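Purpose: get a first structural picture of the assembly so the mutagenesis plan has something to point at.
Setup: two entries, given in the order below. No constraints added.
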Amino acid sequence: MLKLESIRTAVNNVQFNRFRFWLQLFFFVLLVYGGYLGIELGKSLPTFACGYNKEGRGGMCYLMTLQHQMEWPWQKLFSVAGLTVLSTFGIFYLWFIALNKGWCGFVCPVGTIQDWITSLRRMTGIRYSRYSWGQFKWLAQIKYVLLALMFLIPLAIGGGWFQKDLKSPFCMICPGRTIIPLFSADFSQLSIDFSSKTNMIMTGLGLTVTGLFFIGSFVKKRFFCFYCPMGAFHYLLSKIALLRLKKDGSKCTRCGDCFRVCDQEIKVIADDVTQKEIMTDDCIMCLKCVAACPEPGALKATFAGIPIFASTEEGFIKRMNKGCSDGK
Amino acid sequence: MKNIVAAMLFCLMQMSAQAEVFWLSETPPSKKATALKNEQAATVPQADHAEHLHAQVAASGVAASSVAAPAGVKKHQHGGGAEVDATGEIVDNSHSGAKRVWLRRGNSPQDSLYALTGRDSETLVLQSQEGVMPEAAMKVESGKLIARLELPELGFYNAYLKQTMTHGDLLHVQIAKAELLHGTCCAKGVDEEAVAKPIINANMPLELVRQHYPKEGLFTRIVSGDKVDFIVLSYGKPVAGAKVSMTTQQGWSRSQVSDAQGLVSFTMIRDYYTSWLEFKKYHKQTYLMVADLEVTDKVTVEGVTYNAAHYTATLAGNYYPSPYDYRSYAWGLGIALFVIVFGGVSIYLYRRRRIKPYQEVRVDAKA
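Result (structure tokens, whole complex):
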């Protein structure tokens, strides 16, 4: 019992940013170079393990599989073959419920690249940007629009309304498609496809988003995650996930530390002292808020109801001291 | 006198062989052309002196289950009509496991007729990486000779149709071959390099084998501009001096003679020119390879000796437009760089405008 308590204390006092950096690096290597090591985690991963990274990928993003399946002719989609769609979704869901939105905060290679770009900005001493509250509310809707289009356009292709050139519409504008294959020395996605008007527009749009991704991530933490339809999809399914973010409002002093470290600028995390389930649709479950909270037990991450990482005064002080010494 | 007549007949056979060869095609007849070509349905020229032996290629003792499986073919594919998509383009199912193979006659992929042999059915010899498979039947459907195949596993398969004709003591053998691919873009648990190797049939008197690319997998496409190597083999061994010709979809043709390793190399030319609005990057075109080999020595087949023999081997394949025809890295990188530079400058200027200059306010305490 004493041993368990000491383990819990060690976890709560962990140098969280360093731990997260190495964990992200591990998942990045696994998903971007895993293919070279013979690793294949399937086609239903709830994260941007890009399928266009043909040789290196250690698994494939579910959104790519989903869009391909939605493009099936309706006769096939709404027949027995449609069970394949359900089984693929089932596998995706099983992967998802284990980590909830932790897939975004710890596993997603596109998210990791954004964190690296943020580190680069920090080194240059350039300050980061934030949205105003009005902008935040308005822009937060974009991911749902993208999610809806990601379903509707492939369905319309299957129904014969759109040309197949419009297939996998979200993949065509996803920066993961253009950037992740670069890590396997595949530059083929950096071109404009002039074979048809649709392809030209979609690849042009994709490279425009790639440009925005680089410049946006440089001045705004986790810039793309705010618009990511995978994040929206996760949130819609997150009610029964095992990893959860909880808040004890009675212990919160509303100091605002959690809001200040939040890459996604989620105000509710600091303001709301009534809800226990504090995860919102924009949350990426990076748990930086838990690490930055000085109030014991005010914020905690639980797995299947068991607390695995909680805010403590001791942990907060240790991390702050480390931060101060790092800054010297 | 007898020898002169035989030589003349041999020359005639050669000429007819050069004029019209038989080959196996995966391209379905277009519906538009079907009606016209039905009227012209071609049949094997039954030379007066020719005797059809329909030599059965040595079949192994593999399990007797037939690979011909018409049930595996989609309903809307019946009748031999090409399946087209919403834009009218023929659907490319070259990677599907359900295959249809037609016998065609002619030496241009575009103009060759869908042929008949004068018999109700023919026998296709099938070979996979594991060896010879049970034979499959080619049957007459809608005036065309067609085989419907269901390729069980991922990988390449060869199909051979061997026709043997004799003219007195002269032997003429035509071997039409199709290299079929049951492919996928996303093979899982499959050793692609192992199953994507070319297959050789050591029982064939003449065979054209396409040398696969070093990294050729189960979704590799030949595109215009590629250099494609072929090896001419006779009973599995390289043959020098065989005349090999390639004819592309639009009728461009070139010939070479195989070297000591039986090797010939062709560069796939670009012969798909259309307006930009009609351009299709998955536009499938067919090339036809024909290899001719003359043997002037005596040849003994199934106990019968012939004074000379002429072998013709055909192999058809598909090629597509090159990505270099429609992809531009300059534009792609240009757009991305423009957005980065324009965005960066915009953010910089926006931030600069929001900086309020320091204004010192001096208060005169004496005032």
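Chain A touches chain B at residues 40, 42-43, 51, 60, 129, 160, 163-164, 178, 187-188, 190-197, 199, 203-204, 207-208, 210-212, 214-216, 218-219 (CB under 8 Å).
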